[in-house]
Structure formats: C-alpha cells, structure tokens
Amino acid sequence: MTRHVLLFVLVIAGCGGDNRERQPQRDSVVALEQTPPVQPQSPKKRTPPTWRVVERTAAKWRPGSAPYVLIIEDPVYTVGTEDPLTAVGDPDAVPRLRIKVPGRRDYLFTDTRGEGSFLPIKEGLALFRDSTFAADNLVKSPRFYLTPKLRGILGTPMLIVFGYAYASDPGSLRILSLDKSGYPIDVFAEDEFDLAALVDLDGDGVLEIVGKPSLSQCGGCDTCSYDPFAVYRLPKPPIRKATYNLALSRKYNLEHYVWAGTRMSEGIDVNTCNPDKPHLGPARSR
After folding, report:
1. Which residues are CB-contacts of 238 (< 8 A; sequence separation ≥ 6)?
2. 137-160: per-residue pLDDT in tens?
3. How far apart are CA 204 and CA 93, in angstroms?
4. SS3 at position 99
5. What span, in angstroms and rounded, lies between the C-alpha atoms of 229 and 196?
6. Whole-structure pTM value
7. What SS3 class is residue 1?
8. Predicted local confidence at residue 277, as pLDDT
9. 50 three-state secondary structure
C-alpha cells in the first residue's frame, strides 16, 4: 500500500515538471516585444555640383539666327582632402560642354572619361604638321574650332571639340553639326581618337575624318607598336554619323604609314626612324 502511494506521488510530481517546461519564459517575451522595428533608410540626396566656366564664346553658327553660346564648364573640386579631384556637391561631376541654342533647350555633353577638361585646339591637333590648319576658325576661341572645312545639311560649318587625353591614350573627339531645325547633333563621337587629317579621299566633295584610335608605344624608333590610321566617311548629305570605311583606311595607311590590318598590336614592330617612310620591322619571336 505504501509503495502504491509513493508511485502516485512521483507521477503527479513528474506531470507538474512537464507543465513548467511548456510555459513560455516571460522575460524572453518582454525582450522580443521591446525590439524596435528596422526603419528603411531614405537615399542620400545629392546637391547640384558647383561649376566653373572655362570658356564662353558666342558663335554666329546659323544665318539669320541669334548667336549660339558655346560653354565649357569644369566642376569645382575640393581642396585639402584625400581625393583633391572630388567635385563639390556631386562627387561624380565631370567637365561638360554646354551650348545655349536660341529658343531651345541647352545641348549638353558630359565627358565621362574623367576629371580633365577639354583641350585647346593646338593640343588637339598634335598630329598635324601644318600649324596653320585651324587658322580658318570662324570663332575667336582657343578650344572651339568652328570649321568651314566641314559643312552640315544646312550648309553651316561643323564644330570640333577635343577631349582630355589620359596617359598614353588619345583624347576624345566630338564633331557637331546642325540638323534641319538648327539643333546640334553628333556626326562623329569617339572617346579615343587623335585627329590627323580632314581630306577628300574618294572625290565625292565631302572630306573624310582621319585619325588614330591609339598612339604608338616605342622602345626605340625601330620597335614601335602598330597603330593604324582609321578613316571615317560622312554621308552625303551629312545628316547621320560618320562610319568607318575599311577600303579608304587601308589606302590611307599604305600611302602614309604601313598596313597590317585594322587593329593595333604591340606584337607588330613598325620602324619609324624615318618618319616619312615607316615600314614593318621583322616579326617578333615570342
């Protein structure tokens, strides 16, 4: 009888222990309820960059129209910081070309290649041996070349602007024309192109755009990399962008350089010891 009573007491005690384990811990519940919800963060607003006018030139680009205003602007950079080329306000701001078009919205081109400003004409024409090439500029400007050598659909001159050159790469080249409504359009736009000539190679009365997308690297005058000229042809009338022409490129290189294909190569030696008569060097053994 005593054994049965003891067993009964133990069973009741065991049931009580199970019940206590199933009860939630009050402290944990309180801690969970007091955890604040995560608030989404709103994106950081950028302030407009501060601009510095490098050049501002008025141009009588279209007959019978008010002058167009050609503007080159650089962002104002911070001073005394770890990165001195961080623009004030917007750190991603880079130099830009702005054209105030009479009665229309501004034309804007941003040079996204980096912090360097647009080049003076003299530096942009570094490959030209003729120093008087841009003497026919229709505006008095060190950086804007409004050339009568190229004409648009309205017979108006085209505008040439040279972008900054980085390290051993050519700078960018932009050639703008006016469309039928008088608004600027790109007829040539390359981020790396060293202008070398404007010449009519096919006799159609429209000048071709000749230049180099890469610049030669030389160990000596007899071991320069192969960097061919590229010839771009404007449509007639010039209402669309210029296009690369293989036949004219080959012809021009054979007459003024060497020809080993369309692509530059550091594995092909070009001997330029006589600049007037460059020739291919012996094949490299690699």
Report:
1. 150, 151, 152, 153, 177, 187, 206
2. 999 999 999 999 999 999 999 999
3. 42
4. strand
5. 8
6. 0.77
7. coil
8. 92
9. coil
Alpha-carbon distance 137 to 60, whole Å?
Answer: 12
Name the residue type at position 147.
T
Residue 56 CA to residue 167 CA, distance in Å, equals 28
Q: Give just the sign of the alpha carbon dihedral 63, 160, 110, 239.
A: positive
Amino acid present at 193: F
Closest CA to 96 of 46, 140, 51: 51
pLDDT digits (tens, 9 = 90+) for 158-193: 999 999 887 778 889 999 999 999 999 999 999 999
Per residue in 67-109, pLDDT tens?
999 999 988 866 655 555 565 656 567 889 999 999 999 999 9
Query: In residues, how long is the chain?
Result: 286
Tokens of 62: 């279209």
Amino acid symbol at 261: G
